[in-house]
Amino acid sequence: MEYGKFSSAEELLRGYEELEKSFTRKCQQLADLQKQAEVNSKNDGTSAQTPPSAAEDGNAAAEENIGAVPAEVNAPAADSVSAPQPLPRLINGGGNVSMALPSRPKTIKEASVMAKQLFNE
Fold it and tell me: What gap in Å lies between CA 45 and CA 37, rounded to an integer?
């Protein structure tokens, strides 16, 4: 069995677990930034933010993200984060479909009759 860049199932599992930990940290950072933006906008009407430092986030997270884009570069993207918008309303109901089958002529005579009816209407 092939595991892509991983040589065994155990390495693949470890990679997945590390990815899951990293994703959780990123989600927590995003939640912190959203809270910070909410507090800042309530205090002074702006959404200026300062990204959390590596000390706040834990030095382990900073060490694991070596080579990743610095938090200062991602901070402008966090400015555009706003409160979640409500989902659009969906059309409720059955979604009925016309059950009438299209009538197609089987002979030239039937086609002629249908064409005359179409033009007479």
Answer: 10
Total-model pTM: 0.34
Retrieve residue 91's tokens.
């059309």
Tokens of 37: 């933006």
pLDDT at 81: 59
CA 33 – CA 55 distance, rounded (Å): 16
Q: Are 95 and 67 in contact (CB under 8 A)?
A: no
Each residue's pLDDT tens digit, 25-69 = 999 999 999 999 998 888 875 544 555 554 455 555 545 555 555
Q: Which residues contact residue 74 at a Cβ distance below 8 angstroms, ignoring those fewer than 6 apart? A: 51
Type of residue found at 37: A
Q: Which two tokens stand for residue 12?
A: 């693949």
What 3 state SS string does 10-57 have?
HHHHHHHHHHHHHHHHHHHHHHHHHHHHHHHHHHHCCCCCCCCCHHHH
